[in-house]
């Protein structure tokens, strides 16, 4: 999904960051993305996590609805920044 996010969905977005967190993809924007981008992300299986302030794609990995802070999750599963779009 990460490659599809970078190439198709987010290629024209300003300030979008994509992280690989374990098997999940997380996307954060500097500002609220357009309705078109939000709808596309929903169509591709993403959902907005208001607590973490990120869009998440599970890539088929089940969720346990963790209440842990982002830093704890990053440490447990690893995190790799994939791309940063800033125009």
Question: How is this structure best described in words?
Answer:
With 87 residues, the protein is an alpha+beta fold. It has one domain. Helix content is 29%, strand content 30%. Strands 3-4-2-1-5 form a 5-stranded antiparallel β-sheet. The longest helix has 9 residues, at 35-43. The mean pLDDT is 79.
Main features:
3 helices; five-stranded antiparallel β-sheet; 87 residues; alpha+beta
Would you report the number of β strands?
5
Element pattern in H and E? HEEHEEHE
For the termini, the CA-CA separation is 23 Å
The residue-averaged pLDDT reads 79
| Quaternary organisation | single chain
Low-confidence stretches: none
Query: In DSSP terms, counting alpha (H) and pi (I) runs of 4 or more, how many helices?
Result: 3
Helix content class? 25-40%
- Physical arrangement of strands within the biggest beta sheet: 3-4-2-1-5
Coarse structural class: alpha+beta
